[in-house]
Give the backbone structure.
Amino acid sequence: MLEIFVDADACPVKDEIYRVASRHGVPVAVVANSRIYVPPGLGAELVWVSDGPDAADDWIAAAVRPGDVVVTADVPLAARCLRAGARVLGSNGHPFDEDSIGGALATRDLKASLREAGIASGGPPPLTAKDRSRFLSKLDELVQRGLREQSAGSR
């Protein structure tokens, strides 16, 4: 069964995820290393992991199956999930795929090197209404595609 996995600690689009998941009856694993509110009755469950570095990432990477959808802004986690056959969507509505992940990893590494060299860099820009709309649309598209493929595979 298709599932949505959310790298939730800093995810700004959880409400949008719950809306799409509820519409399609898809379960959601909200993975975090702190207690966060998960609304009851929408098929979402909080998976509370330890505080260790990358604990949420490791849990998601171990649990995700081909065809699942992962929502994360973490580029290395996105790469791990793509290798597992999942569909991966950034919280800004831009999907990660085999064509884009190499460039995203290189950009991440470059920015990390610049920070280590003392060159200040800001964090990601705040989400705009357009970003949220793109996210909602793209998540709905990925879930529908996954459900269609799942249905076709069970025939």
